[in-house]
Design goal:
Keywords: FAD, Flavoprotein, Oxidoreductase. β15 and β16 form a beta hairpin. α1 runs parallel beside α8. This protein has 2 domains: about 130 residues, FAD/NAD(P)-binding domain; about 120 residues, 3-Layer(bba) Sandwich (FAD/NAD(P)-binding domain). With about 350 residues, it is of the alpha/beta class.
């Protein structure tokens, strides 16, 4: 009996299952998917859940059903790469023959005192629910500080403005202009969009400390009724604790087939993998398709295929329900078109998975 264990039902895990179930699988294969929740949730939309413009139900997708698929729910405490077992906090160990690690990421607080205690998060569906509850219960004209003006921070700020226009939103970013990973034109467009709507963008900020309802920018206190942290990510703690080769961001370095060099039966997908691209759902899905192909070749005892470099088709972001921005085929887009494109992609994803 061959046992494939997938740790995490995120974008990478879902795409691997989709590809495997569309192919002929060995008779003696069992697939176990491990996750904390009984459904896949679209992490790219957590900002909308936190802001109150999307419901919990609308960002969930049921896991696929297949006779070869077993589900296991629980909190993973560790991975023993030598013994080929996954351990849990409150359950028995789970052995594997082949393992795919897709445990996602956590907030990275950059050693800022108090940031992990006194800020809200949108990294998990549970933390996004809690953030929604806090933000939804704020009184009129309350001040919300959002630390980090990358894609997540920008989308949260714009969606929160649409949901609660009575709030005063302050968006803090280290750069001279926001969205530094995008073309300068897009950063200027989004910054102007915020300025027209009285969302304050605090550029060249340096958050040095966080206390209850107060963050310190360059050492100066700034009152905020609530503070949301979107200023960086790091791999899941279980991955950070593995004694394997990693890059400077603590992501696992892999061979040409997305497996660990010293453990070629252990693959890593998504945010925990060291790749030449920034972590994203798109990268995880592209990588997952290649992992599924490698697995199929292994089970047939065939030579692994030559895998092409992962290519990014583009990136899209929303500014509320009517505006957006992004890059498609190296072309910057702003306005209604990128927002409509993103809505269409989300609809396709939700209705063609599970």
């Amino acid at each position: 009996m061959k046992r494939l264990v997938l740790l995490g039902g995120g974008y990478g895990g879902m795409r691997i299952l989709q590809k495997l179930f569309a192919s002929e699988l060995p008779e003696d294969l069992t697939i176990t998917l491990v996750d904390r929740n009984p459904y896949h949730s679209m992490k790219t939309e957590y900002y909308a859940l936190a802001a109150g413009t999307a419901s919990d139900h609308h960002i969930r997708v049921q896991f696929p059903v297949n006779e070869k698929l077993e589900m296991k729910y629980g909190e993973i405490s560790g991975i023993d790469l030598e013994q080929n077992v996954v351990s849990f906090k409150d359950d028995d160990d789970l052995p594997y023959d082949t393992l795919v690690i897709g445990l996602g990421c956590e907030d990275k607080y950059h050693n800022v005192p108090g940031a992990d205690v006194h800020t809200l998060s949108i990294q998990t569906i549970d933390s996004s629910r809690r953030t929604y509850e806090v933000l939804n219960n704020l009184g009129p004209r309350s001040i919300v500080g959002i630390v980090g003006a990358g894609l997540s921070g920008v989308e949260l700020a714009s969606e929160l403005h649409e949901s609660r226009p009575d709030l005063q939103i302050k968006l803090f970013d280290r750069g001279h202009t926001i969205l530094s990973a995008f073309p300068e034109r897009l950063g200027k467009y989004v910054q102007s969009w915020f300025e027209e709507r009285n969302v304050e963008v605090v550029s060249e900020s340096n958050i040095t400390k966080v206390e209850p309802q107060t963050l310190y920018n360059h050492g100066e206190p700034v009152h905020c009724d609530s503070i949301v942290w979107t200023a960086g990510i790091q791999p899941n703690k279980v991955v950070r604790e593995l004694d394997v080769e990693k890059d400077a961001q603590q992501r696992i370095i892999l061979n040409d087939y997305h497996a660990m060099s010293d453990y070629n039966n252990v693959f890593v997908v998504g945010d925990c993998a060291s790749l030449p691209h920034a972590p994203s759902a798109q990268v995880a899905e592209e990588q997952a398709e290649q992992i599924a192909l490698v697995l199929q070749k292994q089970w047939k005892q065939e030579a692994p295929p030559a895998l092409p470099p992962i290519k990014i088709k583009g990136t899209l972001g929303s500014l509320g329900s009517k505006h957006g921005f992004g890059v498609m085929a190296n072309r910057p887009l702003t306005g209604r078109v990128p927002r409509l494109l993103k809505s269409g992609i989300l609809w396709m994803y939700k209705n063609h998975n599970g």
